[in-house]
Amino acid sequence: MAQPADHADHDAAQPTSNGESPVASMALRGIRVLDLTRVRSGPTCVRQFADWGADVIKIETPVDNAQLGGPRSGPDFQNLHRNKRSLTINLKSKEGVEAFRKLAKTADVIVENFRPGVKKRLGIDYETLSADNPRLVYASISGFGQDGPLAGRPGFDQIAQGMGGLMSITGQPGQGPMRVGIPIADLCAGLFAAQGVLIALMERATSGKGQWVQTSLLQAQVFMLDFQAARFLMDGVVPKQAGNNHPTSIPTGVFKTKDGHMNLAVAGQEIWKRFAIAVEREDWLEDARFATPPARSDNRDVLGGQIENITVTRTTAEWIEVLNDAGVPVGEINDIGQVFDNPQVHHLGLAQPVTSQERGETHLVGQPILMSRTPSHIASPPPLAGQHSTDILKEIGYSDADITSMKALGAI
Fold first, then answer.
1. The whole model's pTM is what?
2. What is the pLDDT of residues 189-220, one digit of tens each?
3. Which of 321, 340, 333 has its CA nearest to residue 259?
């Protein structure tokens, strides 16, 4: 396991808010976020605010039900819910909804990923809450959108990967559709929702008004098709699976070496020339089958075979040195353990230390953004369910007697 990284060490003195407990960053200080999210896409969104110093209040049920994303002590929950406070509220009770609405009046942002219609039934939808708090930015993440013919469907990452076209272009040709190894639709929907909230907060600084921000797993996945989608929309090309080969930049892909495999990215004529010279095959530059990008595309398999006949003669490390010195992009293919042993990953601070309440000393994945004045830290582990309920309710005017009564009623 990697130790605390160099960048984390450089900024080891974590900022504090009002001289009290450490906060993750000063970047979003003063922004209050109510977190109604579950599983992954919503928590991914909210983690962006928590890690950059917002006061994030995770709203949970009084009964700590099993998490769809795994147990509270599990790596997934721990990584998604750090830097937050926890308030337990029963949103199916009159008193619980009343407390939430009172809290919502103090919020800058609310994020939810219920199925469309649930928030309306609970009386905590944007239209209802913004009537009392016109500055509220309310973000909704769903499977397929808040309205439309498929809005009512339950949405999960792999479903969105398939419906959004990603599985049709992932994997080896002829071997059937293949999912990506991370929940990319969930993750991207969460990140896009966070971006939308930040845009809305910037606009609010001018207009003084909040708004409803919406995205979905399907929207995120289709957007992430990027150049593959553009090829279809502009040229009518329906991309197919290409395995480890880049669909248009050739030769770019995975090649065997003497001791394993490596990634090679030979994009454009200039790098093609450097590559041919580096592997001592200048003759390829004059070979009609390989001299131009269209020719290399037409003869991809023949060229790939000739390249691999050369790459298997040296180790991955030897090729990385030779080809990088020649200005040809190349890299090793790491497993996850090797990733966190990589000295550059260590230097960039991607594994950050934390003392988990359930697991003790451990590490979590830090933010991939470095800021010169307001860096992000993992300042606190995920809260226990309801750990901050009393403090939060007192902040919005509830007395000890009120809180005792609400507990007796099962509202918190």
1. 0.91
2. 999 999 999 999 999 999 999 999 999 999 99
3. 333
Q: What residue type is 108 in one-letter code? A: D
Between CA 308 and CA 406 the distance in angstroms is 70
Q: Which residues are catalytic?
A: 186
